Amino acid sequence: MIGSSTPPIRGIIESSLTHWDGRIVAVVFVGGCNLRCGGCPSPHLIGDGCDQGEIPLDSVLDAIYRRRRWIDGVVIKGGEPLLKPEVLELLELLRDFGLEIRIDTNGTCPEALSEVIRRDLVDFVSMEVKAPLTGQYHRVAGTTVDLGAIFDSIGILLSGEVDYEFRTVVYDGQLTSDDVMAIARTIKGARRYVLRAVKDKGPSRTVLRGLARSAGRHVAGCHVDGRPQDRETPFALFADGDERMNA
Amino acid sequence: MKPVPRIRKRDGELVEFDESRIADAIYKAALSVGGEDRFIAEELAGVVSLFLEKSFQGVIPTIEDVQDMVEKVLIETGHAGTAKSYILYREERTRIRDAEARTRPPVQGRLFDPGPVLVLDAAEEQVGPLSGEVLSRKLVAEARLSPRTADEVARAVEDRALQLGLESVTGTLLARLIDVELISRGLLKAVDNRGGVLVPRQSVERSLYPKTHARSGTPAERIAERVLRQYALEEQLPRSCAEAHLDGRIRVIGLGRPSALFAATLSADAIRTWGIPWLKGRFRPEAVADPRRFTALLGRAVRGIAPHVSDGLSLCRLNMLLAPLLAGRSKTDLREEAWHLLSEMAGIPGLEIDLGLAPPPIFASRKARGPDGNSLEETYARFTGTSLQLASAFLEVRGTAAGLGPRSELPRLTLTLGPDALDQDEVLAVVSRAIGEAMAREPVLIVFDREDLPILGTSRTRVRMEDAARLTDTANLSVAVGGRVVINLPRAAYRAGEGHIGDFMREIEAQAELALAALAARSRVIMRSAAAPDGALSPITEGRGDIPPLLNMGGAAWSLGVAGLNEAIGYLTGEELHESDEAAKLGVKTLGLVRLVSSGFARAENLAIGLDAEDDPAICRVLADLDRAEYPRLTDRIPAAYTPGVALRSDAPVDLAVRLETEGRLGIPLRTATVRCFLGEDGHPAPETIIALMWKTWHNTRVKQMLLGRREP
């Protein structure tokens, strides 16, 4: 058995077209999270107990290997994947496949983030900034958060050693446009900031676009994502790739 | 043997047969030549009676028949003198009757010449007396009876009508009387030869007053299709094939339009070069050098062909062939031209516009045809920029459909990608636009044109142009696919039984042979229709003077369809195609066998037959319905509709990579198969991700076509 000290893997999407723009990827879900966000899309991944059904690493690697001609990379999601030091071994194994790796993190583990970047185990980091870095952050995260760690992670990414994006999930009644502006000021100068609305619980796409336009004063590439676009012409969306609001 | 009960007089009246009157006539003739033995006359009358009974079983003889028989008996029994006297007496009577008839005033107040029974022939819109002579001639022609038997049957029918006391009969009733007469004489072959198509009144009324909106076409078209379908099944197909069609082992497509082609592809350059063959007068290409005029002419040609094609019609590489007419135009102009063309072609059922992106070099290196129809020094490659912009304009205008009415009435657009298309930025811009359309509105078909020689056809059947010599002229890029017969693969599995793979293969072979025999029969009908002067297809399959035909039937292709591979393998092995590699391998083996049988047949019959996936949901549903009817015990296991062609079940729990690899592998023996990729389940993939998927599909598989969309329509 390989990877005896790898993090608990709770799920896999063998090939996905929606988790990393421009790439077909496998998505690996790692169990365990240090936050308790109200609208968590994967509450089953919060705990890290063995009773929660772990997928053997061999199966995960086998599924990825069988699709090696199709997938460009692997996205590691959680939970919070950087919470467990064993994730490094998983990343090393995946690197051996010659695949690009993206990690989706909540930014609470800056040391682990630095380490994976330093060891060149990741090609892209997507960090969620859940709220302005004030007391509001604790409410949105459902627990007390070390805001210093969040600042540090933002700083690590802004240093540009690895490709990255910041993202914020917008729920109705939870974040105002001032909040989004506050986040944008915190990550000022970032290459890419993605605003996403939760299906059926978030603001309309028009509202989201307005938020993105405002945030665009601080962030160069501000994107809107994650909402069906039935009523819009496809060409505005796709003629130049994604919908993009420049500052 | 029954004695002759009655005879018919010259005026049609029936009278009892009276042997003593025969004896009287013979005796009178004998007296005139010196005879005096009444007993001999009575004996001879008995012989006449006996001969009449033998010769006219079940048929009423006329006076003339009786008199002919008297003459014959007198001569053959050695009473030549009496016979002579009798004959002279007959001739005298005939002369007197004729003289009386000439002097008799015409009968007033009768519309028709005297006939005992009127025939109301609604089909021919005629009314007239029932004539044994006419009936006899028809029986010789239609039922292929000998003239003598035909006479007898005609007379019997006439008598039957008289006996029934009918004053008039409808054409339908007369046809039934004839059939009854033929059947009572054991002449079943003659009944078969007469054939005929009967449409029950209820069916006609259902066509006139349909209860649902789902019935397509006009009542006239529906009734005509019904009649023609019946005719095709009873008269055109071998009996075994008709039975197999009816019980669901095979499905012959287009029976309601037996002379229509299954599919056709037209080259716009053919119209630009030669005009429309069925229009009289000399064609002057320069008169339609203006794109708008040419669009109108092309529309006229397509509308002329469309009624002769039952499944689909396409305009091949239209953006490429129109590019020389539109070189240098602005994007706004190109959108305007695309709008006009789509508007001109709106409402033509099954029409597809094939947009060629980066076509194979042999295609692109042809000399372009200029606005006046003549070849230019420049090749089509020189007009690539305009060609791509025009493709983009088509996608944009059809997407918004502003001012064009319902999008469902507009021609479908398909993108045919040549080698390296996905490595060219300018092509990718067009592909991105198509992806945007696919994800926002309607699925878009992407065709992978992988070889040096281009493929032509519609989304449901494509043919590779093997004849490179024809490619010297882009006006030759027209193809006809004559017909399609589908093999119901699950039926072979049910017939064989679970686990009986050897029996399954034998059943597959038998069904393939039936389907091929049906296809050959269809080809004979189509080719006859194409070759007949003024035949249904002749306007598009005949040339005029130096003008070649629009469609060259000599190079026609034929399509053998397959449906429900997933259910066939699932029933046989207990595992569907996506559930094990063994199941998929058996699928490949099955298709390989069908292809093998088909290739041998194609060589023997000299027909270009290819294997295509049948993906029409209506046909997949009909086949499942027929199987449920045939195997009620399997009702729970047979789905509402079979999985199209060789595809995996649409909700099979496999990711896209596995689907593309498996379906690509299964599609290798086929000429046409489409992998359906619906990408909107888990969000909205970025266009560049979808392009990456297309690139990998091209390089990792032999997939022929991808239907890209957000969700299943």
Number of domains of chain A: 2
Secondary structure: helix percent of chain B: 40-55%
**CATH architecture classification of the largest domain in chain A:** Alpha-Beta Barrel
Could you give the order of strands across the largest sheet of chain A?
A: 1-2-3-4-5-6-7-8-9
Report the CATH superfamily of the largest domain in chain A.
Aldolase class I
Order of helices and strands of chain A: EEHEHEHEHHEHEHEHE
Low-pLDDT windows of residues of chain B: 106-115
Mean of all residue-level pLDDT scores of chain A: 84
Largest sheet features of chain B? 11 strands, mixed
Total domain count of chain B? 4
Q: What's the total number of strands of chain B?
A: 20
Supply the CATH class of the largest domain in chain A.
Alpha Beta
Percent helix of chain A = 25-40%
Query: What structural category arises from helix and sheet content of chain B?
Result: alpha/beta
Unreliable spans of chain A: 226-247
Q: What's the oligomerization state? A: heterodimer
Radius of gyration of chain A: 18 Å
CATH topology of the largest domain in chain A: TIM Barrel
Can you walk through the features of this model?
The complex is a heterodimer of chains A (247) and B (713). By secondary structure, chain A is of the alpha/beta class. Chain A folds into 2 domains: 1-135 and 147-152, TIM Barrel, CATH 3.20.20.70; 162-247, no CATH class. Chain A is built from 8 helices and 9 strands. Chain A has helices at residues 57-66, 87-96, 110-118, 135-141, 147-158, 177-186, 205-215, 234-238, and strands at 9-16, 25-30, 73-77, 100-105, 124-128, 163-170, 192-197, 221-225, 244-246. In chain A, strands 1-2-3-4-5-6-7-8-9 form a 9-stranded mixed beta sheet. In chain A, α3 runs parallel beside α5 (147-158) and α6 packs parallel to α7 (205-215). The model of chain A is unreliable at 226-247 (pLDDT under 50). With 713 residues, chain B is an alpha/beta fold. Chain B folds into 4 domains: 6-102, no CATH class; 118-194, no CATH class; 268-456, no CATH class; 478-709, Anaerobic Ribonucleotide-triphosphate Reductase Large Chain (Alpha-Beta Barrel), CATH 3.20.70.20. Chain B is built from 26 helices and 20 strands. In chain B, the strands form 5 sheets. In chain B, strands 6, 7, 8, 9, 12, 13, 16, 17, 18, 19 and 20 form an 11-stranded mixed beta sheet that branches. In chain B, strands 4-3-5 form a 3-stranded mixed beta sheet. In chain B, a hairpin with a 5-residue loop joins β1 (6-8) and β2 (14-16). In chain B, α9 (201-208) packs antiparallel against α10 (219-236). The longest helix of chain B is centred in the last third of the chain and has 31 residues, at 501-531. The interface between A and B is medium-sized, with 30 and 31 residues.
